[in-house]
């Protein structure tokens, strides 16, 4: 069977029909999510890393994992149809139409890290007689290097057609100044074998997680550092996150562990907390959304009532929380409210916005004219 790269240029291959077909396939969603998690594991990012670039982001299947993991991301892709599908799905990242072979169109030092899932093999193909894959690949790596912060990292899962393509990619990365190499997962499996290019633009606090490094290039030795691997993610978090993901995709997943269920029952016997973030018959499917203004009351006088606009909702069972923002005495104040905190007596929805912000990009309101304003004063006025 021919590979997509051999059939047509990417912006033509990924047309409206293909973009919808690709994005709605549960098999594709599954595989892309799995590879994105693996890329993040290899990146082994510092907790302070926030801003990521997704190269060849398509319709945002890889990007939505970045959102789930709490990163802010920008995505670039050459296919208008894939990007349009991403916009329809209201992905959280900012999307740019750009050809990676023309270089990464961002200022130097813009990103903590970059990922690319199933895209960079396209660089190895010449779409027109005057396009030179080697030059395009080199321009890509040179500009990527510049767009990363010092010590920034890049992990790309890709599908090389042959060893020449691997050599082309590795040698251009090296010329651009990257350190790193290639990790091959499941090397003996014809079906599951996966190639990850794992690079860093100089030294970083936390080294790349190079378990399974297969082909080498100048690199600091990380070896089989189990602690590092463990730090990447605990098993419990991994399982919970996977379960949430599968639930979102409409799959039936195993019930939460008896411990979690018991705790939830104990902390929320009447379901009012869970009903705030999970659609059910009790709440008629109506749940809180980023942009809503809520008031949080505590059952102790020591903690004052807090009113705030929801910037983010994290749904993680017992660790679920709402990030609220208000402007108090002209100072932006943010409070992370743990939904199952037993000291909270109630959380009331006070107001819904006239219009929800596109893609709920609440983070961007901080400190600009879109900021929340003094909510208490505005609510008093309304009365
Ligand atoms: C298989 S899709 C992967 C999309 C996304 N990363 C995911 O995980 O679902 C490959 C994507 O690479 C994009 N692509 C191919 N060549 C590109 C180029 N030269 N510049 C930017 N994007 C490109 C395609 O348009 C397509 O959306």
TrEMBL record:
Q: Name the family the entry cites.
A: Belongs to the bacterial ribosomal protein bL19 family. Belongs to the class I-like SAM-binding methyltransferase superfamily. BUD23/WBSCR22 family.
Could you tell me which InterPro entries the record lists for this protein? Bud23-like (IPR039769), Bud23_C (IPR022238), Methyltransf_11 (IPR013216), Ribosomal_bL19 (IPR001857), Ribosomal_bL19_sf (IPR038657), SAM-dependent_MTases_sf (IPR029063), Translation_prot_SH3-like_sf (IPR008991)
Which keywords belong to this entry?
A: Cytoplasm, Methyltransferase, Nucleus, Ribonucleoprotein, Ribosomal protein, S-adenosyl-L-methionine, Transferase
Q: What's one GO MF term for it?
A: structural constituent of ribosome
One Gene Ontology biological process? translation
The question of whether Transferase is a record keyword is answered with yes
Keyword rRNA-binding in the entry? The reply is no
Q: Which residues form the 18S rRNA (guanine(1575)-N(7))-methyltransferase Bud23 C-terminal domain?
A: 224-260
Q: Where is the major localization of this protein?
A: cytoplasm
Q: Which GO terms describe its cellular component?
A: cytoplasm; nucleolus; ribonucleoprotein complex; ribosome
Quote the subcellular location field of this record. Answer: Cytoplasm; Nucleus
Methyltransferase type domain segment(s) = 53-155
* Domain of life, source organism: Eukaryota
Which named protein is this? Methyltransferase type 11 domain-containing protein
Q: Write one Pfam family the protein is assigned to.
A: WBS_methylT
């Amino acid at each position: 069977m021919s590979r997509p790269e051999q059939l047509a240029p990417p912006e033509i291959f990924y047309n409206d029909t293909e973009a919808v077909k690709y994005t709605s396939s549960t098999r594709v969603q599954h595989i892309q999510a799995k590879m994105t998690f693996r890329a993040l594991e290899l990146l082994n990012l510092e907790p302070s890393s926030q801003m990521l670039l997704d190269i060849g982001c398509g319709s945002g299947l890889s990007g939505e994992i970045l959102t789930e993991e709490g990163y802010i991301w920008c995505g670039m892709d050459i296919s208008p149809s894939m990007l349009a599908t991403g916009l329809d799905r209201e992905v959280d990242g900012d999307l740019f139409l750009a050809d990676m072979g023309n270089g990464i169109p961002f200022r130097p030092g813009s990103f903590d890290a970059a990922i690319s899932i199933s895209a960079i093999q396209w660089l190895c193909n010449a779409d027109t007689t005057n396009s030179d894959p080697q030059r395009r690949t080199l321009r890509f790596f040179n500009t990527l290097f510049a767009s990363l912060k010092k010590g920034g990292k890049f992990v790309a899962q890709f599908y090389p057609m042959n060893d020449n393509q691997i050599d082309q990619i590795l040698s251009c990365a090296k010329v651009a100044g990257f350190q790193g190499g290639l990790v091959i997962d499941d090397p003996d499996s014809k079906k599951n074998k996966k190639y990850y290019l794992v690079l860093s633009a100089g030294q970083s606090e936390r080294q790349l997680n190079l378990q399974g490094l297969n082909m080498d290039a100048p690199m600091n030795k990380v070896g089989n550092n189990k602690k590092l691997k463990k730090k990447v993610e605990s098993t419990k978090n991994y399982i919970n996150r996977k379960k949430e993901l599968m639930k979102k995709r409409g799959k039936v997943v195993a019930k939460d562990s008896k411990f979690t269920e018991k705790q939830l029952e104990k902390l929320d016997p009447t379901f009012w907390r869970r009903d705030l973030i999970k659609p059910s018959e009790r709440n008629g499917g109506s749940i809180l959304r980023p942009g809503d203004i809520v008031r949080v009351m505590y059952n102790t006088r020591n903690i004052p009532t807090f009113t705030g606009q929801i910037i983010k909702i994290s749904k993680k069972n017992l660790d679920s929380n709402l990030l609220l923002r208000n402007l108090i005495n002209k100072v932006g104040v943010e409070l992370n409210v743990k939904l199952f905190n037993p000291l909270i007596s109630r959380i009331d929805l006070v107001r819904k916005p006239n219009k929800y912000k596109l893609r709920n990009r609440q983070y961007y309101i901080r400190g600009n004219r879109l900021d929340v304003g003094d909510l208490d004063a505005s609510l008093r006025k309304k009365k």
